[in-house]
Design brief:
By secondary structure, the protein is an all-alpha fold. It has one domain: Ribosomal protein S20 (Methane Monooxygenase Hydroxylase, Chain G, domain 1, Up-down Bundle). Helix content is 84%, strand content 0%. Helix 1 runs antiparallel to helix 2 and helix 2 packs antiparallel against helix 3. The longest helix is centred in the first third of the chain and has 36 residues.
Length: 87
């Protein structure tokens, strides 16, 4: 239990940030899963739309500090390659 006022505040702030970070991460992962489904269904138009959404979610998560820069770049690259390889 926190004994100081600033420690109590940090507990509250950290809890709020944890919720926000979890939302960023969940949004990123869900958009990547939707893209994988679109790729599996071999619908190129749907996959391209899902790619835009996934890249936006990955960039937001990176900006928020949820995922590291190189991981974000790697994910975007791999997903883009998969979409471009579709016929």
């Amino acid at each position: 239990m926190a004994n100081m006022k600033n420690a109590e505040k940090r507990i509250l702030v950290n809890a709020k940030k944890e919720v926000a970070n979890n939302n960023y991460e969940a949004t990123m992962k869900n958009s990547m899963k939707k893209l994988e489904k679109a790729i599996a269904s071999k619908d190129k138009e749907k996959a391209q739309d899902a790619l835009k959404v996934a890249i936006k979610a990955i960039d937001k998560a990176n900006k928020a500090g949820v995922s590291k820069k190189n991981k974000s770049a790697r994910n975007k690259s791999r997903l883009t390659k998969k979409v471009n390889a579709m016929e």
